[in-house]
């Protein structure tokens, strides 16, 4: 896949506008009722890093990053400042944040997920791009040691255990993560507002499936 394991400069994504997008197909019946369905199992996020005035150095950094990705050709990591941790925004990452599976005595690999709950409903979001050094894992409330008990593939978000967890063991994890995205344009428009600042009115990016 055309993807570069490099993060868009976090200082430039801070303050960006964006969030999850869903696709819903709605059919209104003759009696006025609706039938609603979605072809998407998972949401897709969009962002715009064009937050207006920046230093000329920031503009240069933005252009260099865009050129290195060859526009829309290569994907990259994006820090969503509104949602980048397994815990609450005001909390601290803990190995007990998210349940990622239950042991069956055979399976040794478990993908990271973040669950969003509201009332009786919940959505499990796959986490494919964990951040280096941020992942914590545990069994039944006991922290495990990376490199001895388990390891993580940063490119896929899959946790692999040295030995398969016993039947019924609850596997939990905490982590920070990035969103895999690409530029949603092949054109970046800039202007120089002064000798110290430049303007980038729009830098759209969109999540990609990996």
Walk me through this protein's architecture:
The protein has helices spanning 10-13, 56-68, and strands at residues 3-7, 17-21, 25-28, 34-37, 44-48, 52-55, 75-78, 98-102, 109-111, 113-118, 121-126, 129-130, 136-139, 142-143, 150-153, 158-161, 170-174, 177-183, 191-192, 197-200, 204-207. The chain is mainly beta and 210 residues long. Strands 1, 2, 5, 7, 12, 18 and 21 form a seven-stranded mixed sheet that branches. A four-stranded antiparallel sheet has the order 8-17-13-14, with no helix packed on it. A three-stranded antiparallel sheet has the order 6-20-19. β15 and β16 form a beta hairpin. It is globular. The N and C termini lie close together (8 Å).
Question: What's the mean pLDDT score?
Answer: 92
Class by alpha and beta content: mainly beta
From the alpha-carbon coordinates, what is the Rg to the nearest angstrom? Answer: 20 Å
Topology as H/E string? EHEEEEEHEEEEEEEEEEEEEEE
Shape call: globular
Helix count equals: 2
Low-confidence stretches: none
Defining traits:
21 strands, 210 residues, 7-stranded mixed β-sheet, 4-stranded antiparallel β-sheet, mainly beta
